[in-house]
Amino acid sequence: MALIGILGGMGPLATVDFMQQVIALTNSAGASRDQQHLELLVAHLPHIPDRSEALLGSGESPLPALLRGIDMLNRNEVELIVIPCNSAHHWYDAMRTHSRAPIIHIAEASVAALPPEASRVAVLATGGTFQSGLYQRMLAARGFESIDPDDATQRRIDACIREVKAGRIDASTEHLAAALDWLLSHGAQAIVWGCTELPLAAREMDLPAIPIVDSTLELARATVSYGLARGWNSPR
Amino acid sequence: MALIGILGGMGPLATVDFMQQVIALTNSAGASRDQQHLELLVAHLPHIPDRSEALLGSGESPLPALLRGIDMLNRNEVELIVIPCNSAHHWYDAMRTHSRAPIIHIAEASVAALPPEASRVAVLATGGTFQSGLYQRMLAARGFESIDPDDATQRRIDACIREVKAGRIDASTEHLAAALDWLLSHGAQAIVWGCTELPLAAREMDLPAIPIVDSTLELARATVSYGLARGWNSPR
Question: Which of A24, A31, A167 sits opposite B27 (nearest CB)?
Fold first, then answer.
């Protein structure tokens, strides 16, 4: 039994969305019975301190709790770890050093999915992820220009994320629409949902006809590819 | 940290549906931030042998694999276990005896949710669960009459479940509609989705205006009530 560990609950609905994508991709790859799916151990730990608040200097560090989650998964002998929360990847190096199992990097998977011809990219993420520069550095390293939100637009993005976390998807979409309007009018040619709550709002909206990268979906694709390549979908 | 253990992957989409119900009920109870949700450890183990086939005598027993899952959850010190698969509850007594943590019984939670005035009840479940008599005994003990499917109707129910497990919800609904027609024309006054794949098909259909009990939802209600009553939604 090869287990894939998911460090989740950040937030709860985003973890469920990630699992659903993993299952749908496995079905698309031919699974028609339970026994043809990947085995997962999901540490769904929503009490981990807020990542964005910590990055903005207004909350305690989530790192000790993140490492406890990584420890729990490793104790259960997972062979891979994935974390469907972009902001948590600010602490990627510390988690990776701490973990026996490898950890797929959500932002690397997402930036790798951008079409090269879209040179100006807007990443929508938490205020903390934006401040941390996580995506801006990766975009620059691959030759993309980052279209950064102004303060009012970032507040809209954070409000959207907050509404999704509260289970109010209906209330989340107007904030995302306003943020998208601003970013498109400032030259964005492609967008990245760089927070795993955002695809849940986006799914309820009409979206612009430009390339859109969903970090939850890209992490799920990377996870399923990794597992299927190793035959983890078959009982041993 | 009080963890609730979920023994899942039976099937994969049903486990995701269960988690989503737990999250939605916790949001409805007032959670607006990640940190106000319940912490879960999900052993998502779809390689556990098919429960229905074993009950029908055509497959290996899932009990050893079920007990390994129960062991994994107990090793991680979960304080409650839930299993969003009705057929697996044929082995409830063995799992309960084996487990340190208590296990909520999905069929007990579901039968308890039936309105007493609906005296004739149809439980739609796998062929194995039907053969096992799990629900029929519980209904009789509470004074309900069980409306049992004929062979052709049971084949429709099993076909519906199979399509959901294959990720083909669209193809699942016609089977469920046919089964419902037969059961209603044979006197059912209330129905129970006694297999956790069925609510996923039912959500895409027009349903008859009679009481319907969703075993996934009733298990989620029991789980959230148990956890919130003990304050498990607050970080300690």
Answer: A167
